[in-house]
Design brief:
By secondary structure, the protein is mainly α. 65% of the residues lie in helices and 0% in strands. It has 16 helices and no strands. The protein is globular.
Length: 249
């Protein structure tokens, strides 16, 4: 481990809070058989980590990678903040380096907050004008977090009003067995609806009856109550104009 990386770890240790660490272990489900099983926490709040990321924004990529491979959750989250910063500030060559580093370390990006704070910023942004095969490969991975990376990466596309890949990956993940994937897909469908309600409704009308309940609830969370209930009760008539005033009120 480089001296800078050692120094950063010392900073993190000095900021640690055992009480907060115990709370984080419960919040991020680190018990046996849970999705975050065995993860270790120092007990450091996210705003503190963001401040550290600004302080160390010039960190070299090998050092960021060492942090990303730390057993401590907060060190990995800090590493991802640093990588996002280096990606945003970099040219195409540097962005590819960050993307390659990220893609090669997905086993360390192993909880929902780690994925959600980084996937669309790095993977989504890098692949936006390139071949999307990597995220389709992730969507079919046996690794829960790679599947979440796949759908969260499309958040960048959605923000740029490009919905095709988000919908295609949502379809691949439609029967996924993990609740954390159901929530992520529902969230992305809701984000599509925020930009194109017609697009979201068209997808839902075709698939809502085969959709996990959690996924559906997330997707329709902000719908007007009559429309929301029509999906939940299974009474939705798909040929109705989504902008019909009587229905949308």
């Amino acid at each position: 481990m480089t001296s800078l990386c050692t120094d950063i770890h010392k900073e993190l240790q000095n900021l640690s809070d055992p009480v907060m660490a115990e709370h984080a272990k419960r919040f991020f489900k680190t018990g046996k058989g849970e999705y975050g099983e065995g993860d270790e926490f120092l007990g450091i709040r996210v705003p503190v980590l963001r401040k550290l990321a600004k302080k160390h924004k010039s960190v070299f990529l090998p050092e960021a990678e060492q942090l990303l491979q730390s057993p401590f959750h907060e060190a990995r989250l800090l590493a991802l903040f640093l990588l996002v910063g280096r990606f945003n500030a970099g040219d195409e060559h540097r962005r590819k380096q960050v993307y390659d580093l990220y893609s090669g370390n997905t086993r360390h990006i192993n909880n929902w907050d780690l994925v959600d704070s980084s996937a669309h910023h790095i993977v989504g942004c890098y692949l936006f004008d390139k071949d999307k095969k990597p995220i389709y490969d992730f969507s079919r991975s046996a690794h829960l977090w790679e599947r979440r990376i796949a759908i969260l990466s499309t958040f960048y596309f959605i923000r740029n009003k490009a919905f095709e890949d988000a919908l295609a990956i949502s379809l691949i993940l439609l029967k996924d067995g993990q609740d954390l994937i159901h929530k992520a897909v529902g969230w992305m469908l809701r984000e599509i609806g925020n930009r194109s309600l017609e697009t979201e409704i068209s997808f839902l009308d075709a698939h809502y009856q085969n959709m996990p309940r959690t996924m559906l609830r997330y997707a329709i969370e902000k719908f007007p109550e009559p429309l929301r209930l029509s999906y939940l009760k299974g009474t939705r008539q798909s040929m109705i104009d989504p902008y019909n005033k009587g229905e949308m009120q």
